[in-house]
Amino acid sequence: MNEGRRQKAGGSISQTCPQCGYKKKKELSQRVHSCDNCDFVADRDVAQLW
Q1: How far apart are CA 35 and CA 50, in angstroms?
Q2: Residue 44 burial (CB count, 10 A)
Q3: Which of 2, 38, 43, 50 has a C-alpha 20 to 30 A away from that of 21?
């Protein structure tokens, strides 16, 4: 049960724009978050902290 919870949280954090909330599926190899909706750009690890 915990495993599914961790996977869901990690997926939603890295795939959701911290500025506008737009969701876009990303591969783990994609290191830069670039939002198609609001043009927010940041390193994926930095964007995750917002």
Answers
A1: 14
A2: 16
A3: 2
Paired with 16 in beta bridges are 23
DSSP string, 2-41: HHHHHHHHHHHHHHB-TTT--B----TT--EEE-TTT--E
pLDDT digits (tens, 9 = 90+) for 3-32: 443 334 444 446 899 999 999 988 888 999
Q: Is 49 helix (H, G, I), strand (E, B) or coil?
A: helix
- Listed residue (46, 50, 9, 12) closest to 31, CA to CA: 46
Q: Which residue has the higher pLDDT, 34 or 5?
A: 34
The residue count for the chain: 50
